[in-house]
């Protein structure tokens, strides 16, 4: 157990719970074999040993050099397993999904770990938690009010907030402290962004403003460039951004000093382009010589997200016939990988191997850049085929391996043949 540190990273001087675990529970060795059995995959190990590829009959599988569980997810899942082992008799609550992967969440649920899911407005009601219980904070972190409520409950808290998320918090907290409004490239409904905005308003009078994509960033830039905006201009501007800013945010007052940050799992190229555009707009409005006084920017895409996007770009220099992207439908980094792949090759984003139906041969996949589920027949062409595969940071190897196995079965190939390759 971590002795209450002086606030913990990025939490300033706020108190932490008396029973607070931030660096594991000392049971890593005990849970590692179980994690390997449940989430590892021999086929994937074989592909990696063979230069990220494997040929079985007419199909050549190619996997991205970097994909699947990232360091933050590895750690969060491991801590949840350690938690169950350490506290076999205590009620354990996860404040949200530990990660955005349905298989991992179902598995934790089957271990008796209960989930507190957010309301439509994104609020977590943790009032059910009692002093003898254990609360697990997921890799995305939780907002400051929820953290404070957990502390006040007196329960044990296992905090798996990823270090890369803490870096974003540190950044926006510094913006807030220095009187800069945090402009965050992120999804307003995502748990990580909800937690981040609570750090961006840590100081009195601090504000945040969210942009989802380049189109929204351009609207912001257009407003910044107006030399003497009226209240009418402000009203029209804010009509495009309902629920995307801190209470009391006024574009006439709070866009004079801006610090840009981003949700860790956004498309890196888009985040960088957005930061550059906003910087240009601030320069146009206030003058290049004033820019360091009114504009700051820091790329807070995590290295795991960046590595996975880079690996896909590398693989798609010679695009395969089709791409399979495996990961939760609500996983931001997986959706961005699917978007990236779809610009190079026909792409199917599936959350579990079972989306490939071995009875009727269809694949049920999420629309790229949408939430709609589509069913596609005849998606696996005849003849020699190269199939590229990648997976989001919250997808275990086991899922990707099972996807490959189901593709082989559908193509009339013997997965045993692959294992013997
Ligand atoms: S995707 Fe990045 S920020 Fe999220 S858990 Fe993984 S390493 Fe951490």
Give a description of the structure:
This protein is of the alpha/beta class and about 425 residues long. The protein has 3 domains: about 150 residues, 4-hydroxy-3-methylbut-2-enyl diphosphate reductase, catalytic domain (Cobalt-precorrin-4 Transmethylase, domain 1, 3-Layer(aba) Sandwich), CATH 3.40.1010.20; about 90 residues, Rossmann fold (3-Layer(aba) Sandwich), CATH 3.40.50; about 140 residues, Cobalt-precorrin-4 Transmethylase, domain 1. It is about 40% helix and about 15% strand. α1 packs across α3 and α6 runs parallel beside α7. The longest helix is centred in the middle third of the chain and has 19 residues. It binds iron/sulfur cluster. Iron/sulfur cluster (SF4) binds next to α3, α6 and α12. Iron/sulfur cluster binds next to α3, α6 and α12.
Helix-strand layout with pairing:
Blueprint: E1 20-21, H1 28-39, H2 42-49, E2 53-56, E3 59-63, H3 71-86, E4 92-95, H4 102-110, E5 113-116, E6 134-137, H5 144-153, E7 156-159, H6 163-177, E8 181-185, H7 191-200, E9 208-211, H8 214-225, H9 231-239, E10 258-262, H10 268-286, H11 291-294, E11 295-297, H12 303-315, E12 322-326, H13 332-342, E13 347-350, E14 363-366, E15 373-376, E16 385-391, H14 397-410, H15 415-419
Parallel strand pairs: 1-7, 3-16, 4-5, 4-6, 6-7, 8-9, 8-10, 10-11, 12-13, 12-16
Antiparallel strand pairs: 2-3, 14-15
Helix pairs in contact: 1-3, 6-7, 8-10, 12-13
Bound molecules: iron/sulfur cluster.
Distance between the termini: 46 Å
Bound molecules: iron/sulfur cluster
Strand order, biggest sheet?
A: 1-7-6-4-5
Mean pLDDT across all amino acids? 93
**Total separate domains:** 3
Alpha plus pi helix count = 15
Shape: globular
Structural class: alpha/beta
